[in-house]
Structure formats: structure tokens, C-alpha cells
Amino acid sequence: MRKIILLASVLFLTNTVVQAQKKKDLLAEIDKLRQELRTKDGELVEARKNERVSQSKVKTMEAQVADLKETNATLLANMNSFTELSNKKASNLQTSQEIIKEKDRQLNVINDAITANDSINLAVFSKFKNAIGGDNLKISNGTIHIILPNTTLFGENDKNYVVDAKAKPTLEKIAATLNANPDLNIIVEGNSNALKLDGKKLIDNWDLSSRQAASVVRVLQTDYKVDPKRMEALGKSEYSTEGIETVTRIIIDPKFNNFYNLVKDNMKN
């Protein structure tokens, strides 16, 4: 019996020790697991923190990417506008160069015409100078002026409008040069300042100047066969804005209308 009780006691103690050891091991395992859990919790917190930092970085990078895309789009748009503007400027420059080239051609044509016109004037001027001398000649505004005092053409009577016989040799020389150059137009301009006109036979100085000019034209036509279609008669008076000058001008115009039409045709475009 005692052996049984002893055995039972030994078994009980053994079981108690075993249970105690198991409990200790279990508690140690629990502590270990708790430590691991705390570690994992710390890692989880750190991971969440890193995740938030990463998300913030992602948002920042997304914003930067969006800005870059917008900037790139703006640059592309500006580049397209610049290219279009450059092309337009290049086109305008080409057009301007063509216009300048055409204007330069027109100016060359006009300059050549002016040179030709001046050459004709100088040649004709030289011919008249050889015929009648240079004292009564001048070139003004592209035309040749032969200036003859009224006393030379009509005598000392300031109211006379019939060409004096003494003046005809001079008119003959002028007519010879005119007939030798059929392209020259002629204007005979009378200028008078006679006083005490009676108002009947001669109304005023316009009347007298016109008759004197017509008389010269008539002599050139009738006596020396100058084509009347080339000639015009013009009368001025004491009211002329150029001042009083009792002379008759024979104005030689190398068909300025042709030159004018040439300039107009080249400038109208």
C-alpha cells in the first residue's frame, strides 16, 4: 500500500513538474510571440509611414509630370506658332523681295526714260543753239524754252500783234529745226503788258497775248510749213503768277505725254 501511495505521489509530483515546465515553456513562447508581434507592429508602423512618404512622393512626381506635360504642350504650341510665323514671314519676305524687284525694274524703266528724255532735250537744245545761238535758250522742267522779246517779234509798238519782217529770219531758223524733228510738240506762249488798250480792237492783254502767239504760230505754219497739229497758242497777261515779262516763249516739248504715260503705266501697279 505504501508503495502504491509512494508511486502515486511520485507520479503526481512528476506530473506537476511536467505541467509546470510546460506552463513555463508556454509562457516563454507567449512572450516570444508578443515580442515578435511588437516587432511586427513597429515594422507595420514604419511600413505605413514609408507608404505615406512614398504616396506623397508619387503625388509630387505626378504633379511634376502634369506640369511637364503642360509645359511641353505649351512649347509645342509655341513652336508650331513660331514655325507658322516664320513661314509667314518667309513668304512675306519673298513677296516683298518680288515687289522690290518689280519696283526696281519700274524705276529702271523710268530712269532710262528720263535719261532718254534728257538726252533728246540736250540734242534738240544743241540744234537750236547752233541755229539761233544760246542767249535766248534755256531748259526748264524738262522742256526747251526759246525766249524772244516782243520788240524783236512785233517791233517797238507794244500793241502790235503782227510779226515784223525783221523777225522772220529767226523764225525761219527755228522752223527748220522743228521740221527736222517732227516728234517735237510746240507751244507758243504770248506775254504782254501793253497800256491804254481801247477795249474795242484789243480788249485786254489776254486778247493781245493770244493774238501775238497766234500770229507766230501762223507764220510758222504758213511761211515755213510747220505742221499746225503740233502747235498750240497760249496767251497770258499782266495777271500771270510768274510776273510781267513782255516776251514770247516758244516752248519745245519732246512729247512729254509719252514719257508721262510710260511713268503712269509703270507706277499704277
Structural features, described:
The protein has 269 residues and is α+β, with helices and mostly antiparallel strands. It has a domain at 113-267: 60s Ribosomal Protein L30, Chain: A, CATH 3.30.1330. The protein has 5 helices and 5 strands, in the order αββααβαββα. Helix 1 (2-132) packs across helix 3 and helix 1 runs antiparallel to helix 5 (256-267). Residues 141-258 form the OmpA-like domain.
Q: Concise description?
A:
With 269 residues, the chain is α+β, with helices and mostly antiparallel strands. It is built from five helices and five strands. Residues 1-20 form the signal peptide.
The major pleated sheet works out as: 5 strands, mixed
Shape: rod-shaped
CATH T-level fold name of the domain at 113-267: 60s Ribosomal Protein L30, Chain: A
Radius of gyration: 60 Å
How many strand units? 5
Number of helices: 5
Distance between the termini: 148 Å
SS-based class: alpha+beta
Provide the helix percentage: 55-70%
Keywords summarizing the entry:
269 residues, rod-shaped, 5 helices, five-stranded mixed sheet, coiled coil, Bact_OuterMem_StrucFunc, membrane, 12% strand, alpha+beta, 60s Ribosomal Protein L30, Chain: A
List the helices and strands and how they pair.
Layout: H1 2-132, E1 137-140, E2 143-149, H2 150-154, H3 168-180, E3 185-191, H4 205-222, E4 231-236, E5 247-253, H5 256-267
